[in-house]
Amino acid sequence: MARSSSYSLIPGHQSELSMAYGDEGIGAAKTQGKYWGIFICWLLGNGCLFGFNGMLTIEDYYTYLFPKYHPTRIITLTYQPFVLATTAIFTYNEAKVNTRMRNLAGYVLFFLSSFGVIILDVLSSGGSGIGPFIGVCIIAAALGVADGHVQGGMTGDLSLMCPEFVQSFFAGIAASGAITSALRFFTKAVFENSRDGLRKGAMLFSSISCFFALLCVLLYAFVFPKLPIVKFYRSRAASEGSLTVTADLAAGGIKSQPIPLAEEAPVHTERLSNKQLLYQNMDYALDVFLIYILTLSIFPGFLAEDTGSHSLGSWYVLVLIASFNVSDLVGRYLPLIEQIKLTSRKGLLIAVVSRFLLILAFYFTAKYGDQGWMIMLTALLGLSNGHLTVCVLTEAPKGYKGPEQNALGNLLVLFLLSGIFVGAVSDWLWLIGKGW
């Protein structure tokens, strides 16, 4: 499938950046602050899913409080429609959305939702029943709306910058799962395995989620837009016709110039439509869709409820979830090794489809295998999930102009979240024949 011309071939683009930075300044601006940017992107990714991962990680607390409601599956299924609908709305209106306000609103809502978990638990005194459970579901929905603001917005924003930023952001998302798993081991060991101990662990998770979300608000609002490398890439996107970066450029101290009229400089305003971008990248969209259908059809519901009892006892589910989260994090760093990074479009699609063989492997392992095989399979699920996700999201935007990269990032996240939603629904198929 043909691609649009890369930015370096766009007439007038290089001269505009030369006027802004100087010929020697362009090279410096493209690298200055890069490592700080990578670290901040990692933190921003961490804050993106820390709250929801915290709710999943304390599933033993919610299972204790609401044993009849399948909280692990219900919370995930409640979260997904809201994140999907919010992302779809923003993707459709991507070119007209103020990306800065979108992302800041999302991180603020992450903070308020995590704080809401604490308030709800205090008001209900850690009580069970349908009322508190509905409250938990409402908070899960609010986290979904927040994720719909941030994940697509940040991916689109970072797609017009260097690939390392996208990789670090998605590694941060995986790190949130690994960190919550590590903290869950700590709280389970420190606090008694009782209702009060589980409650203390849950409150600790929510407090840390509040901290991460607030940190992300401050970093994205005041630190990230002022990094020289970020200002360079956003200036380049503005020179290519992007309107979504204007507020971020202003926050970085750069007053963006008006975009020339189409008849004066048509190359600035011409860009592929979302439909054209999707047509050219349908295989990438299908990749992320299928990756997450498989992952969410197994994690976390099947691992939490359908893998039986083994010698690890109550630690078994925590070990499985930690195994997935840690291997997912490792998988997202593997593409940094060029020799093993998948760049072939056909190779990526073959790898994604082949991954569905894991369904049979999990079924027979749960039925006949021991805990060692299940832990190994879960690690393989996470490793492949992280590696393939980063490969797709870093390869797809290459060769497009800034506005197109932003739009494509939003489109791919929409398909990713659609896969998560379908996967979360498919997870219920494991219950066939077992009764409600």
Layout of helices and strands, plus pairs?
Blueprint: H1 13-21, H2 23-29, H3 34-57, H4 59-65, H5 71-92, H6 99-124, H7 130-159, H8 163-190, H9 195-223, H10 228-239, H11 246-251, H12 266-269, H13 274-280, H14 282-298, H15 301-305, H16 316-333, H17 345-354, H18 357-368, H19 371-395, H20 402-426
Helix pairs in contact: 1-2, 3-7, 3-8, 3-9, 4-9, 5-7, 5-20, 6-7, 6-9, 7-8, 7-20, 8-9, 8-16, 8-19, 14-17, 14-19, 14-20, 16-19, 18-19
Report on this model:
Keywords: Membrane, Transmembrane, Transmembrane helix, Transport. It is a multi-pass membrane protein. This is Equilibrative nucleotide transporter 3-like. With 436 residues, this protein is an all-alpha fold. The protein contains 20 helices and no strands. Helix 5 packs parallel to helix 7. The longest helix has 30 residues. The radius of gyration is 22 Å and the shape is globular.
Jot down its keywords:
single chain; 436 residues; mainly alpha; 74% helix
Helical content (DSSP H or I, runs of 4+):
over 70%
Mean pLDDT: 84
| Number of discrete helical segments | 20
Residue fraction in strands: under 5%
Taking all Cα atoms into account, the compactness measure Rg is 22 Å
SS class: mainly alpha
Order of helices and strands: HHHHHHHHHHHHHHHHHHHH
Largest sheet: none
Outline type: globular
| Number of DSSP strand runs | 0
pLDDT < 50 runs, ≥5 residues: 4-12, 258-268
Transmembrane segments: 35-54, 74-92, 104-123, 129-146, 158-183, 203-224, 284-303, 315-335, 347-366, 372-396, 408-431
Family: Belongs to the SLC29A/ENT transporter (TC 2.A.57) family.
Membrane topology: Multi-pass membrane protein
Pfam families: Nucleoside_tran
